[in-house]
Design brief:
The protein contains 9 helices and 4 strands, in the order H-E-E-H-H-E-H-H-E-H-H-H-H. A hairpin with a 5-residue loop joins strand 1 and strand 2. By secondary structure, the protein is mainly alpha-helical. It is 60% helix and 10% strand. It has a two-stranded antiparallel sheet with strand order 1-2. A two-stranded parallel ribbon has the order 3-4.
Length: 210
Amino acid sequence: MTPQKRLLDILSAVFLLVVLSPLILGVAIAILLQDGRPVLYVSERMKTPTEPFRLLKFRTMTNSDADSGVSGGDKSQRITPIGRFLRAKRLDELPQLFNVLKGDLSFVGPRPPLRMYVERFPELYSEVLKCRPGITGLATLVYHGHEENILGACGTREETDAAYSRRCVPQKARLDMIYARRQSVCFDLRLMFATVFRRISIHRGRARGS
C-alpha cells in the first residue's frame, strides 16, 4: 500500500466516522432493541495469505454456533428483518471503518476472504492479496449482485461452498487482478464514487474490456 492510498483511507475513515456517527449509533441501538446482543458480528478474514484479522460488521442474522462459510440460500432463514434492510443498503458494513483506521482494510481492494478459501486456492490468493483487502472494489461493484443470485439459489452449506468455489472465486479473482494492474488513488476515488452512487454498469463495461 502506498503512503498516498493509506492517507486517503485514514482521512476518509475519520471523516465518515464523524459524519455517520449518528447513523452508526442509531443502527447499533436498533439491533440491540430488536435482536439483542451481540450488536456486532466478528469474523476472521485474511489480510495476507498468512495474516488473519477480525472483520467487523453489524449483526444481520440470528446467532448460530454452527455458523461457517459464505452466506447463501441455506442461511437466508436466519437473516433478521432489520438485517435484511441493512444488507440491502450495505449499512451492515459501517463498522469496517474501524478496520480501515486500524489498517486491516483499505477502502478499495479485493474483499477479504475466509481462511478456508485462501488455503484451498493458495496460488490464486497469493496474487489477489498482494493488494490490501477493501470495503469495496472492482469485483464488488461488478460481481456482487451476480454472486448473491448464485449463492441465493443454494439450499445447503455444501451447495453454497461448491458454487462459491467453482463460480465466484475465479471470477472475482480475475476482476481483482484487473484492479491491481490499474490501481491508483484516482481509480480508487472513482470506485468509491461508483459504490456510493451504484454506477456499476460503467465499470462492468470497462472491466470486460480490460
